[in-house]
Design a protein that fits this description.
Length: 248
């Protein structure tokens, strides 16, 4: 059991100004640290397993003597239950940083995705086309949204208005949105990937299959995932049949 220093009162603590560590008592290892510049803060010195820890509890006088003692006792209770407060704080800081890395908007993700793909493009126009279609159709709807908040309905809202009138553009835009949501350009791996759950599955409902006929290229959608898409696919099928019937 660590030795507990003489218990000091709030007034006595407020008069401590000499640089160094000053035990204040009541909770073993609780010290008021005074720096060479005169700033003061609370430090809990404790053994955690085989390691000596110095755990910061806040600045004085923002954190009062009573509050410092309560915090120190809480940290000692953690240590007693087998928790290393220093490791716990490091893990929390690491998790916070990881979460902040995921807080990226679609616009930022698209910018990173284009930059990551640029070295592999033989023609600079590819990048311009990517930017143009994303800025014209996707950014007005999802540009300021966090990637992890983008859902199937948002992508449908982008693609449905142009799917029958600008099919080629819509098809390419679908692939570009998928690439951005995929998350590889964000250098995120494992469970923390930014792509929405099932993104490839639901975005694939817009994939276009093509086959060449005497009348030209006929486009066909994969099975639709919504009533609206069913109508689109049915319309494309009718167009394909009409094109074929005109040959005979």
């Amino acid at each position: 059991m660590p030795k507990v220093a003489k218990e000091l009162g709030a007034l006595a603590v407020s008069r401590i100004t000499v640089p160094g560590m000053h035990p204040v008592g009541k909770v073993a290892g609780l010290n008021l640290q005074v720096s060479q510049t005169g700033s003061r803060s609370w430090i809990l010195r404790a053994m955690v397993g085989d390691h000596r820890r110095e755990i910061g509890l806040g600045a004085f006088p923002a954190v009062s003597l009573q509050e410092a003692r309560e915090r120190a006792q809480a940290e000692r209770d953690k240590i007693k239950s087998g928790i290393d407060p220093v490791f716990e704080k490091r893990a929390a800081a690491s998790q916070l940083k990881a979460n902040q890395e995921l807080e990226v908007t679609f616009t930022d993700a698209a910018r990173r995705c284009i930059a990551a793909k640029a070295p592999g493009w033989k023609n600079a126009k590819h990048g311009e086309q990517w930017r143009a279609t994303i800025e014209a159709y996707a950014q007005p709807i999802i540009g300021n949204m966090l990637v992890r908040h983008i859902t199937r309905e948002h992508v449908l809202k982008i693609l449905e208005p142009i799917w029958t009138t600008k099919t080629e553009t819509a098809s390419r835009l679908r692939g570009r949105i998928e690439a951005v949501l995929d998350g590889r350009a964000l250098k995120v791996s494992g469970p923390a990937r930014t792509r929405p759950r099932g993104a490839v599955t639901w975005i694939n409902c817009f994939r276009v299959r093509t086959r060449q006929s005497a009348s030209g290229t006929i486009r066909r959608c994969r099975p639709a995932r919504s009533a609206t898409l069913c109508k689109i696919c049915a319309g494309l099928k009718r167009m394909a049949r009409a094109a074929l019937s005109s040959l005979f």
